[in-house]
């Protein structure tokens, strides 16, 4: 398998969520895994010492970079893409909690097909990649690691096609970034819609956007855009639809067909089988 992707955590305030995210990376990534904390000029003065202190203590190959001024989410991500050389990357929101084996599963998915541009894992709160209830903000499971263990056993993996990645945890292949040019910061400003636009551009050029059904990452939700008062609607959605008039139709067709239904059922069955065979119960309590 090729070298590990660099995990990029875009940071903007949200101290407690960031602290929990970094602790989960320490717990779930192999030593010396590359991690970049990309701070988009956080206004909370506690962020920098927390991030720098973690980088110094962590066994991971972790770096912290702070922007001199706020670039907005797409601009911050593009700068991070430039800061990571020629590596593939995984954009990981600071309001996530990772589980054992998550990055290895995503890397295995990426290695399965060089035309995969983006990869999204399952999560409790990931729109079309939500589990157990599709397109819902499910509660954080009581035992996320058990859900991840069950997901890792979904073999042979299918890596089904998605109309778009979901940005809470999003693998991006460097070759696709090089060809497509990263996110469109000029159009999408402070953020929202840039990952959808990237995925649509990728698909138009013959790349694939897929689900890694063998990986699971918790997404608390709300922290990444909440401090900026942004919501998934309004001007940026209008800009996305101006460029891709059939976007809503594509997503609606996917939701109506629900091609992930069978995979969600298989995952639920594996969770229940693991619960019967071990001490853990009520995994979604």
UniProtKB/TrEMBL annotation:
Does the keyword Glycosyltransferase belong to this entry? yes
Please give the superkingdom of this protein's source: Bacteria
- Name of the protein: Glycosyltransferase family 2 protein
The text of the family note is: Belongs to the glycosyltransferase 2 family.
Q: Which InterPro entries match?
A: Glyco_trans_2-like, Nucleotide-diphossugar_trans
From the UniProt record, list the coiled-coil ranges.
Answer: none
One short Pfam name that applies is Glycos_transf_2
Question: GO MF annotations for this entry?
Answer: glycosyltransferase activity
Q: Which SUPFAM superfamilies match?
A: Nucleotide-diphospho-sugar transferases
Q: Where does the Glycosyltransferase 2-like domain start and stop, copy by copy?
A: 6-179
Please provide the record's keywords in A-Z order.
Answer: Glycosyltransferase, Transferase
């Amino acid at each position: 398998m090729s070298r590990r992707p660099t995990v990029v955590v875009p940071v903007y305030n949200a101290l407690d969520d960031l602290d929990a995210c970094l602790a989960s990376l320490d717990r779930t990534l192999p030593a010396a895994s590359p991690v970049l904390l990309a701070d988009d000029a956080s206004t909370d003065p506690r962020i920098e010492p927390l991030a720098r202190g973690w980088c110094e203590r962590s066994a991971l190959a972790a770096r912290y970079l702070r922007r001199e001024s706020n670039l907005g989410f797409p601009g911050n991500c593009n700068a991070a893409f430039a800061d990571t050389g020629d590596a593939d990357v995984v954009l990981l929101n600071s309001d996530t909690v990772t589980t054992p084996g998550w990055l290895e599963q995503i890397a295995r998915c990426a290695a399965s097909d060089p035309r995969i541009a983006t990869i999204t894992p399952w999560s409790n709160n990931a729109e079309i990649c939500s589990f157990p209830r599709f397109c819902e903000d499910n509660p954080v499971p009581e035992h996320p690691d058990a859900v991840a263990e069950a997901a890792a056993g979904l073999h042979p993996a299918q890596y089904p096609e998605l109309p778009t990645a979901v940005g809470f945890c999003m693998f991006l292949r460097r070759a696709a970034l090089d060809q497509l040019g990263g996110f469109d910061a000029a159009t999408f400003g402070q953020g929202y819609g840039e990952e959808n636009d990237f995925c649509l551009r990728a698909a138009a050029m013959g790349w694939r956007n897929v689900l890694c059904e063998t990986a699971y990452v918790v997404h608390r939700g709300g922290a990444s855009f909440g401090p900026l008062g942004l919501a998934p609607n309004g001007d940026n959605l209008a800009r996305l639809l101006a460029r891709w008039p059939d976007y809503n139709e594509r997503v609606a067709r996917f939701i109506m067909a629900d091609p992930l239904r069978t995979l969600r059922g298989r995952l639920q069955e594996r969770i229940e089988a693991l619960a019967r065979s071990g001490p853990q119960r009520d995994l979604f309590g």
